[in-house]
Amino acid sequence: MAAALPYEDADLPPIREVESGYASGSSSAASLPDIYLTKPHLRFLNKQLAQLEPEDILRWCLITLPSLYQTTAFGLSGLVTLDILSRLSTASNAPPLIFLDTLHHFPETLALIARLRSHYPALTLHVYKPLHAQTAQEFAEREGERLWETNPDLYDYVAKVEPAQRAYEELGVKAVLTGRRRSQGGKRGDLDILEFDPDTGIVKVNPLANWTFKQVQQYIKDHGVPYNELLDRGYKSVGDWHSTAPVLPISSFSADNDADERSGRWAGQAKTECGIHNPKSKYAQYLLRQQQHQESTSPSPSPMVPAEQALSQALTEKLNLIAASGA
């Protein structure tokens, strides 16, 4: 056995002769982050990606981002992304899909999934539901009737945010593709193509951020992509049945129209997002409101339902981590 060189520690693994002195994917460095983006780097990438078409953005994602998944409720943007990826990727490198089954989707949405499985035989789909519930009836028995009305923040957490977090953790997600676009309005008006969550280390990519509804619509028609039948009944954006309404007279999906794409979501409410794309602030706001309400109404807070108890604990832990990181 060769003697250790003067600068080597005999108790440590030998230095690989093929290493250049810099860390790489094949080196012995164990502390490299999966994905790390500084603000200047993020700004630079967004400036470059903004000049590309969705197909080129997705091609860049396939060769750049590890553990890449697509989160989708099978809206039009997600369907365009799915179809482009089916043309770019092979079965071995196609990003798997994550679908959050809130147990309150339209039957037409679930029927679309079956059609998509047939249209894209190589499709890999992971379905996540609320904890401890497999049906809408079980959900109501556990969380209470019409939770989306009695406590919409809690409903968002139980039905969407928590399942999404669970999916990311169990699947080891490092980057996700979303269907958000600037033309959808609301908080999406200033959307970048590339976003980074420093708390989770997850990269969010919005490959169709620059596209309009008409561009998405035209792609669907040109490529024969299966779509939700509700779009032929006046809907332009489809979510849960209890928070989605048609915005147009019943007409063909192929008809041109300029109706606000997401105006049928949470109609009459000052709400444009469900919390999935901004969970940290949603957590903090919800916990603060819960604490303020309990302190102002009763010295002995009423018992919380199971999901609310779990949410309170999760929020407290999250806020403690945020406070510790800022100390």
Short structural description:
This protein is of the alpha/beta class and about 325 residues long. It contains 10 helices and 6 strands. Strands 3-2-1-4-6-5 form a 6-stranded mixed beta sheet.
Overview of this protein structure:
- The protein is α/β, with parallel strands linked by helices and 327 residues long.
- The protein has ten helices and six strands, in the order H-H-E-H-E-H-E-H-H-H-E-E-E-H-H-H.
- It has a six-stranded mixed sheet.
- Helix 3 packs across helix 8.
- The longest helix is centred in the last third of the chain and has 21 residues, at 306-326.
- The radius of gyration is 23 Å and the shape is globular.
- 31% of the residues are buried.
- Mean pLDDT is 80; it is low at 262-267.
